[in-house]
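Archive entry. Fields below.
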Amino acid sequence: MRNKPIFKIVAVLAVLLFLFFIVFSALQRKPNSKQKSSNQTAKKRIKAPKFSSDSAYAYIQKQVDFGPRNPNSASAEACGNWLESKLEGFGANIITQEDNVTAYDGTVLRMKNIIAEFQPEKKKRIMLYAHWDTRPFADKDTVRINEPIDGANDGGSGVGVLLEISRMLSKNPTDYGVDIILFDSEDYGRPTYASGSNYKDWCLGSQYWANKPHKKNYNAKYGILLDMVGGENAAFPREGTSLEYASNVVDKIWKSANSLGYGGLFERAKTNPTTDDHLFVNAAGIPSAAIVEFHVHQMGGYGKFHHTHQDNMENISKETLQAVGDVVMDVIYNE
Ligand SMILES: [Zn+2]
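PREDICTED_STRUCTURE:
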């Protein structure tokens, strides 16, 4: 009879010990596994080579110094040749697409798309692009509305950032081959005061490319479009067309921006779908996201400089260029 309570006590103790062991080992495991996984992700990400906003700024200045780069102008021709030789100097294989395209008003434009292939032997590719032409008029201005604009931000900035990235690519190869594409004749769309606007008035160079890529059966895992990426007080919300076609690419870019501390500039807010070169590249089957200045709470959305003579070097910010350059570099060097 005296054995019974002792047996009970032993049994209870055994159960308690067993429970204690389970709880203890679970507690031990939890922080360890967390630590391990965060270490693994931290280890996985590569620190990209340092992007220089001074250098990107100088490339924008150089373009602006040629004068407005509206199609058919002598300054466009000179700048186009300079871009080609600059990219060639960075060791890229250059392919150009030169042809006539017809603008909304029947004007025949001499178009030149410039494609720079880095590590062309690689099958897996990423495409980075911008337009290099500038608007032939300042239809949103109140003065000199028929004169072409400097296009420091709208045209110059995307190209400036891509030239600086090209300089980095020439010294530091990526796992993926990278194609830098500078599209022509993006900004020849019908003026805002004219009626009968059609989205196909815009992006004539990328439309041409979408119909006839620089290589047969060309493919890339994804594309990133840079347009108006150097403005003072810029904002880069998530753009609607990009979300529609390539939300995973948007996630990739905005995640990287957050991790680099640029979450204030790369906003969570969304825009409506907009027409830009990425619309036609997406339709051609390469999922693409745009980084483009837009102010969701402002009339018209695009910055005040947009399609006016204020789109000049005074509006160019090295801080904005640095942020965009850092983010794109982080994305491509971690692919
Ligand atoms: Zn524009």
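CURATOR_NOTE: The pocket of zinc ion is lined by residues 135, 154, 187, 307 (CB under 6 Å).
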